[in-house]
Amino acid sequence: MPNLSMDLLKPLIQDLVGGSVFSFKESDEKIQNDTPAKHSIRLKLGKRNYLCSVSRVKLEILPIEKRIFNHTLSCFQALYNSLSDAKNQYIRDGVIFSVIDLGVVNYLKNFTQQEGQIWSIQNLLYVLKKLSFERYEGEPATTGFYVYRKKSLLHLKQQIDENQNLKEQNFIFYDLKKPIKLNDNFFYGPLAYRYIDGSNCLYCSDIQMRINSILRLDNSIGFDAIDKLNNLPFQLILDVFRKDNSFQADLNKNSEIEISLSNFRKLIWRKGRWIIFNPHLFRTFIGEDFPRKNLHALYKAVYALSKIRHGALILILDKNNENRYLEIKQGSVAGDHDLSKELINSNKNKHINDLKEDNSLIRMLSSDGLTVIDSMGKLIDANVVIDTSEIPEKKEKFGGGRTIAAYAASQLGKVIKVSEDGPIDFFEKDEKIYRFG
């Protein structure tokens, strides 16, 4: 029976598709009753048919999540059926944790049919995971790769030369005399990852992981602190080069593998598990009326806070709850301190995109307490302490002070919580409906 193997895989899938519930049952029925918030796939394991589903309470299952889910379960089916003999049980269960790796690899190679691409991408992930254990003078190793799937390096250079925004960043290529194949000893010396750090320099590789050039960012004109934390200069190339043609794979300062795709979609290997970050969920959660520039500022700031491990609590206040907010506001983290009041007042009624551009937003959000913005993205208040006495008693068992405050604030609107260890949670009407990380 595959149930025991699925029990191992279940928490990994639920982390992959954040805030989801995974179900697995023996069934011959056709897939039906799927909704935007539910996605199913049928598997044949041995001689029996099974139905696997993943669902969320309110937020839709996005295309990238569906595709990686499908790839992962297809790999599980192939693995289970090839090792279905009882004597292979330990081998089968031992490699279950590689199944999501295979799902990610299949997603990344999906747009190309070149021979050997599955192994080459898997090898890239292996080398980055191995490097994640490396320390040099106490500092974690960091590095990065820009991988073009279909087009050539020449095409990449032409795209950069033809795009005005990219030309302003003054990207510089250094071509190697001959391609170097990525292998187990690629990072034998520290210069290989100290110089090519993933922030200012990247290796350029084809889908076969032949490194033939180094791409360096000479300046970052027009990018604020949040943009730089998110490697936005290189993200521009991904967006210009088109979604199916390239991806970026970095090892960041938290020893996490961060795979960047177009439109700010990311696959993150964090704490030994794969998770998906897709900003479209912010649009779905907050609503279509929220101004686009402010939405972009918000999800970039939230991701940056998660990446640098700074906690934050953000309330997008519903219009009809403004008076109730004043009733449950108990004060400020700084009390009646005059300077804190002045600093908050100096930023009130500013759009969060403006706060991002003047490098105030990330400091404002991470300065403890609740940050309150209105339904159009203007700052209302910061460092707020609210009354948590009316939340259901059972909610108090599910976290610390920031989580309890999130449940309380969610009675007034949409709440986004960033934990100090990285996870991002969405709350609405006393319920946690999504988790990233």
Summarize the structure.
Helix content is 36%, strand content 27%. It has 437 residues and is of the alpha+beta class.
Molecular structure report:
This protein starts with a helix and ends with a strand. The chain has helices spanning 3-16, 63-82, 89-95, 99-109, 117-131, 153-162, 164-168, 191-194, 225-229, 232-240, 280-286, 292-308, 322-328, 338-345, 352-357, 361-365, 401-409, and strands spanning 21-26, 38-45, 48-55, 135-136, 139-140, 143-148, 171-181, 201-206, 210-217, 246-251, 257-260, 266-270, 273-277, 312-317, 329-332, 370-373, 379-386, 413-418, 424-428, 431-436. The chain is built from 17 helices and 20 strands. It is globular and about 65 Å long.
Q: Would you spell out the secondary-structure blueprint of this structure?
A:
Elements lengths: L2 H14 L4 E6 L11 E8 L2 E8 L7 H20 L6 H7 L3 H11 L7 H15 L3 E2 L2 E2 L2 E6 L4 H10 L1 H5 L2 E11 L9 H4 L6 E6 L3 E8 L7 H5 L2 H9 L5 E6 L5 E4 L5 E5 L2 E5 L2 H7 L5 H17 L3 E6 L4 H7 E4 L5 H8 L6 H6 L3 H5 L4 E4 L5 E8 L14 H9 L3 E6 L5 E5 L2 E6 L1
Parallel strand pairs: 6-8, 14-16
Antiparallel strand pairs: 1-3, 2-3, 4-5, 6-10, 7-9, 8-9, 10-11, 11-12, 12-13, 14-18, 15-17, 16-17, 18-19, 19-20
Helix pairs in contact: 2-4, 4-5
Number of strands: 20
Which percent bin holds the helix content? 25-40%
**Mean model confidence by pLDDT:** 87
Strand content: 25-35%
Rg, alpha carbons:
23 Å
Largest sheet report: 8 strands, mixed
Unreliably modeled segments: none
Shape: globular
Strand order of the largest sheet: 7-9-8-6-10-11-12-13
**H/I helix tally:** 17
How far do the termini sit from each other?
A: 30 Å
Structural class category: alpha+beta
